[in-house]
Write the structure tokens for this entry.
Amino acid sequence: MSAPTTDRHAADRHVTAERLLKSSAKKSYDPAVDIDWDAPLPADKIWVPEHRVSLYGTELWDRMTPEQRVELGKHEACSVASVGLWFEVLLMQRLLKDFYAEDPTTPRAQFALTEVADECRHSQMFARMVHTAGVEPYGPQERIRQLGKLFSVISWGPAAYGSILVAEEVLDRLQREQANDENIQPLMRQVNKIHIMEEARHVSFARDEVTRGMAQLGPAEKAYQRFVIAYVSMMVVRSLINPKVYAAVGIDPAVGRRAALGNPHHHEMIRWAGEKIMPFLDEAGLVGHPGMTWWRRSFLLGD
Ligand SMILES: [Fe+2]
Ligand SMILES: [Fe+2]
């Protein structure tokens, strides 16, 4: 007699977790040891490629000096890092809530704790990088920080892991480009290399949670998941650049924010960064009514 579907789902997710646990045991980093925090920051290196700065291609950009462009890039890189670690803290909450509710001895539960440990080190690493760069740890805007408290209350299952995937895969795409660019600060490149390596496991785990989770839901629950993931994903991409960064180069934050949100080049960058994850979420049945307004506002689907 074959096992009931739910038992098979449970068994499969442990197979994935077991594989990921083996990979974690083989390859993990300690940023306190694997990064030379005392190395000087070369003055001729930049923090992000120019074409990834939110104002690139705007009139404001044309009026900026080369020094201001580099400075804005540095502040945006640090905004993304400090918002990224805030995402990681929200993810850790989700993983710990799931761990709290299940058998702690299973491979899936063990991997959830391993991922929390990875994210703990990443958050320390990003915070330390921002501090070393001498930039304010902007984090998300206050309104969004408050909304974040609701994340682990309103989202679970596919929407929770799917929106985490949006954050992880969008950042991964940007980090891969920077890790291979010799014009980028060596500190930034090393941080990105460590993050890329360890995030690959998180992406496998979350993709598995999404696919399995959706297969177990009815139509009404699926619609709820589609709404939540679209709203949270829009918040994820909109929060990456805290408008305060513009003040660092003498631009009014509201003016800079408006210019970035109206910048077709910036929209295209977000679409490009989401190019890997969006087809997966679509195939999983997470992109559709009633979330389409939020997806369109996110720029992840393109203009
Ligand atoms: Fe991370
Ligand atoms: Fe992660």
About this structure: The two ends are 52 Å apart (CA to CA). Residues 66-100 form the longest helix (35 residues).
